[in-house]
Amino acid sequence: MISPRRQNVLIVDDEHALRNVIRVALVASGFEVEEARHGQEALEALRRHPFNLVLLDMNMPGLGGIETCRQIRSFAPETGIVMLTIRNAEDDKVEALEAGADDYVTKPFRFGELKARMAAVLRRLHSETGETGILEAGGLVMDLHRRLLRKAGAEIHLSRKEFDLLSFLMKNQDVPLTHMQLARGVWGPECGPELERLRTYVRTLRIKIEDDPAHPRYLLTEPWVGYRFCSHHFDPPAPTW
After folding, report:
1. Is the pTM of this model over 0.90?
2. Cα 61 to chain centroid, rounded
3. Alpha helices, DSSP H, located in the chain
4. Is the pLDDT assigned to residue 28 strictly greater than 60?
């Protein structure tokens, strides 16, 4: 897990009480934290100096979370963004991801879950696995150059598209990917959602890599959104906020 030491986080939320609670918990975990009350203030803070990660509320007066996310992505592409929202509509989650968010957490959330999501985003941003050509998660080891997959040392045969899909998921492990992001990542930028084809490949991959395909450990479904490759189980969460 990425160490929180020296990682600086910007909390953007119009609720002072929630900002304060999150700030105290993150500071206690070793993060450096600043706060912003709304989207415009967040953009000004990011232009003054960079942040490793932004916790961004989707529902704010004035400049909303989605537009703020888009603007952050336009000038700070290396900054991690986790959206905070009270909405549970799947369309909102898709909108957040397509605006450039790395992940989302729905209020009320638990600090254990929030911290795990943050760690996953930071781990992906700082990962050097792509440079070596080796991706690892749990008992899976994928060699991108030789196009080989091993589980607990045993080689698993994958078709070309199965390998492409799994490698795309593993490169973005612990981050939710929409159906559209997956389809375009595997079949090209002009590809449509390809829902049925995606489901077919995910089903065959689960049969090949999961101990129990009916209860997947790695290839998790994000209902109505897409899929998430899970590299580890989240720790037991703290009480709900």
Report:
1. no
2. 25
3. 16-28, 39-48, 65-75, 90-98, 111-126, 129-132, 160-171, 179-187, 195-209
4. yes
